[in-house]
Amino acid sequence: MGDKPVWEQIGASFVQHYYQLFDSDRSQLGCIYIDTSCLTWEGQPFQGKGTIMEKLTSLPFTKIAHSITAQDHQPTPDSCILSMVVGQLKADDDPIMGFHQSFILKNINDSWVCTNDMFRLAIHNFG
Amino acid sequence: MECKKEIWQTCGEAFVNQYYQQFDCTNRMGLSSLYSDDACLTWEGTPYRGREAIGAKLVNLPFQRIAHAITEQDCQPTIDSCILIMVFGQLRVDDDPPMAFHQVFMLKCLNGAWACTNDVFRLGIHNIPV
């Protein structure tokens, strides 16, 4: 673990924390967003912590479980971290679906927050 | 930020068009000019750092022909005035069957031009076939 670059450690730690919160109680996700955060959820934009939390807490499922297949992390020129996640999720009794999600993390007041979040189900690629 | 809303969308889309046009229709030698000096590329989980290393990776990809078809793209502005883009689509390499792919770019305005500072590419292995 000590061999990994710091942005990988932070990115991996964030990803684990995010999906753990999402799957157990997504109303707790508020702490990771800020007032200027942007979320694009299946192509729809949401701006700011309040609006984002409204969207996430109103998603129409009771149970959800994410499983991460792959994650990539990179440092950005402005000392942020870009993370891209590929995995599968299962909502309630629906069939398992693939998903893709990208995050930008920024260190504000000694805490890593999510300033950008983009989520899509992996259903768009075959026509 | 509101009055600049269209700038990041327009620039993001223009970059995506230029990137895949160069990727598909040239020998990819010019792609490195789209990246910043210290850009990061992660290609199917392997990291490359710097324009030269990235350019070499892309030029040496082992196929004769490639065609990308973009299904969806999402753009967002970032706090540091960069542009984050997520692209979904299909690609076809030589005579292989089409495959899904997923790519994320971050653009930064450097010396008056938008350059790609971050690029993450993965094939779509969980996609639901229709």
Oligomer: heterodimer
Name the shape of chain B in a single word.
Answer: globular
Mean pLDDT of chain A: 94
Strand composition percent of chain B: over 45%
- Annotation field: number of helices of chain B: 2
Kindly report the spatial arrangement of strands forming the biggest sheet of chain B.
2-1-6-5-4-3
CATH T-level fold name of chain A:
Nuclear Transport Factor 2, Chain: A
Largest interface: A-B, 36 and 38 residues
Largest sheet of chain A: 6 strands, mixed
Q: What's the CATH architecture of chain A?
A: Roll
* Intertermini distance of chain A: 41 Å
Distance between the termini of chain B: 39 Å
- Compressed to H and E, one letter per element, the order of chain A equals HEEHEEEE
Give a structural overview.
- The complex is a heterodimer of chains A (127) and B (130).
- Chain A has 127 residues and is α+β, with helices and mostly antiparallel strands.
- Chain A is 23% helix and 46% strand.
- Chain A has a six-stranded mixed beta sheet with strand order 2-1-6-5-4-3, with helices on one face.
- Chain A has a single domain, classed as Nuclear Transport Factor 2, Chain: A, CATH 3.10.450.50.
- In chain B, strand 3 (66-77) and strand 4 (83-93) form a beta hairpin.
- Chain B is globular, with a radius of gyration of 15 Å.
- Chain B is of the alpha+beta class and 130 residues long.
- A six-stranded mixed beta sheet of chain B has the order 2-1-6-5-4-3, covered by helices on one side.
- Chain B starts with a helix and ends in a 7-residue tail after the last strand.
- Chain A binds chain B through residues 36, 38, 40, 43, 45, 69-70, 72, 74-78, 80, 82, 84, 86-88, 97-100, 102, 104, 106, 115-116, 118, 120, 122-127, and chain B through 36, 38, 40, 42, 45, 47, 71-72, 74, 76-80, 82, 84, 86, 88-90, 98, 100-102, 104, 106, 108, 117-118, 120, 122, 124-130.
